[in-house]
Hints:
This protein is mainly alpha-helical and 379 residues long. The protein has one domain (24-376). The protein is built from 15 helices and three strands. The chain has helices at 13-20, 25-48, 56-76, 79-84, 86-103, 123-141, 149-168, 172-189, 193-214, 217-227, 238-249, 261-264, 276-309, 313-337, 355-373; strands at residues 105-107, 110-116, 119-121. It has a three-stranded antiparallel beta sheet with strand order 1-2-3, covered by helices on one side. Strand 2 (110-116) and strand 3 (119-121) form a beta hairpin. The longest helix is centred in the C-terminal third of the chain and has 34 residues, at 276-309.
Amino acid sequence: MRDTSGRFPALSIAEDRSLLGRLERPSWALALSAALLGSVGLATVWSASTELPIDYLPRQAAWLGIGVGLMSLGFILNYRTLLRFSTAIYIISLLMLGAILVFGHEAGGARSWVGFAGLGMQPSEVAKLATALLLVRFLATREEGSLHGHEVVVAGLIIAAPFVLILVEPDLGSAMTLFPMSAALIWVAGIRLRTLAVGGILLILTVGVFWVYGLQDYQRERFTTFVSPGDDPLGAGYQLRQSKIAVGSGELVGKGFMQGTQSQLRFLPARHTDFIFAVLAEERGFLGVAGVLALYLLYFYYGVRVACRARDPHGILLVVALLAIVAFHVLYNTSMMVGLVPITGIPLPFLSYGGSFTLFCFFATGLILSVDLRRYVNR
Length: 379
């Protein structure tokens, strides 16, 4: 997988073009499902934001256009070349997270944004990708066999730095995303049951300390409201109550485009971002939700197929990491809408309004396509 000089192999432009004809169904289906999800998201954001003072339709259309460009860029890039610079990318992402604590724009109680020309960007999305790249490179270049305890510790330290910086913002949702991604990578890389048991005990202890010292009061309130939402139906339980009403009122076929009462009459909060799924359910009903979930299943099915036929551990682990991040967002956001998990700021991939995460999802898709494209040369 490396040449005699120890450097990662690079593809010439001619080689890249010759491989374009070898793309098969998994790659095209993956790109098509992402594009269709983005189109559904554009229409839903349009409906959800009609009563807002800002017109989010042209903004989301711009983000989707840039996202498609980034997907193309990720597709063209040799992912092994990107992994080669993973340490530098990781350090830059930590510096960005540190800078946002001083110069960032505060919104929703979190200093996690930086604004430019009326648009916002979250460095935490860069940190997700950077952490995934560095973890992949570390786990893929180690000797074969199950992970040893000290290797798990190193992986934990790689995760800990961005986790703490994101949590300080505070942005619990983005920080949480790092754990399923790292867990998926460690599991696929291989881990002894004894090491897994010890790690589980340490994780439980860490969660206890985190609950006492790491969470803000309003974040704890979200978890207690999840257990008993009826205790404060007009306060902390309001979001969940309105979301359940929106989802349930859609019934089989929904109320129609821009006809949802919870969204159009402004009962549903954050309806164009975190609660976009509730708007979809209210307007399109069970059948519309089933169609969107089918597109997600298509996306993950063909993403897993790309991982299964990748020819090197770097490619396999990179696809696993990216799919784990997107899958966690889908599972958590949809579960959040019906009260199965506590409410926190985790958007729905390709559908929710938001530049940074939308760009991340499309670029991640491009990198997965890059792995599939280069399975013939990375041997």
